[in-house]
Amino acid sequence: MLKVRDLHAGYGTGRSSEVLKGISFEIGDDTFACILGANGCGKTTILKNILCLMRPSNGSIEFNGCDILKMKDRERAKLIAYIPQAHTPPFPFTVRDVVLMGRYSHIHGASRESENDIRVADEMMEELGISRLADRSYTELSGGQRQMVIIARALAQEPELLIMDEPTNNLDFGNQYRVLEKVRSLA
């Protein structure tokens, strides 16, 4: 269960810079929830705080009774995966390598990915219909193809909580349906 209590957060310092002012909600297990609102109202800011990509000025965020603000990154990555609105590729990794990055929190120290990690990554690519792209360079893909790869990466994490910020951005209708069906089956 995700519990957000009296969340205050913003960009800059002081109360006048707050975008979120006293936000509280709970999301139960096996629940599909959606945050709706106008552009600029703080939807992404809520997600960034849950993900610890930014820190609240006040409030608490718990997942399954644990304060996520106190968790180590690797520990949090085993529990929570994130699909951003858009992703700019930093290097020309192969699609398989990008999806395998979702397994990072399961790999110990300087070890390489295991056969199980590769199997999980391949299964996610297969489920999303992008296996044919596995050996292609991520930087050479269309925006919609990149989004499918990022979704496969997040699913390869095998998280307990999947946070999506406009996950069907850049996707054609067929892939929107495929992604939303996969999300429905996960919930």
Structure explained in plain terms:
This protein is an alpha+beta fold and 187 residues long. The protein contains six helices and six strands; from the N terminus they run ββαββαβαααβα. The strands form two sheets. A four-stranded antiparallel β-sheet has the order 2-1-3-4, with helices on one face. Strands 5-6 form a two-stranded parallel sheet. The radius of gyration is 17 Å and the shape is globular. The mean pLDDT is 89.
End-to-end gap = 13 Å
Which whole number gives the mean pLDDT?
89
Strand content is 15-25%
Largest sheet: 4 strands, antiparallel
**Radius of gyration of CA atoms, rounded to a whole number:** 17 Å
Count of separate DSSP helical elements? 6
Order of strands side by side in the largest beta sheet?
A: 2-1-3-4
Low-confidence stretches: none
What is the percent of helical residues? 25-40%
Question: What shape does the CA trace take?
Answer: globular
| Helix and strand composition category | alpha+beta
Number of strand elements: 6
Topology pattern, helix = H, strand = E = EEHEEHEHHHEH
What characteristics describe this protein?
single chain, 187 residues, alpha+beta, 4-stranded antiparallel β-sheet, two-stranded parallel sheet, 6 helices, 33% helix
Helix and strand layout, with pairings?
Elements lengths: L1 E9 L7 E10 L15 H8 L7 E6 L2 E2 L5 H7 E4 L11 H6 L14 H13 L15 H14 L4 E4 L8 H14 L1
Parallel strand pairs: 5-6
Antiparallel strand pairs: 1-2, 1-3, 3-4
Helix pairs in contact: 4-5
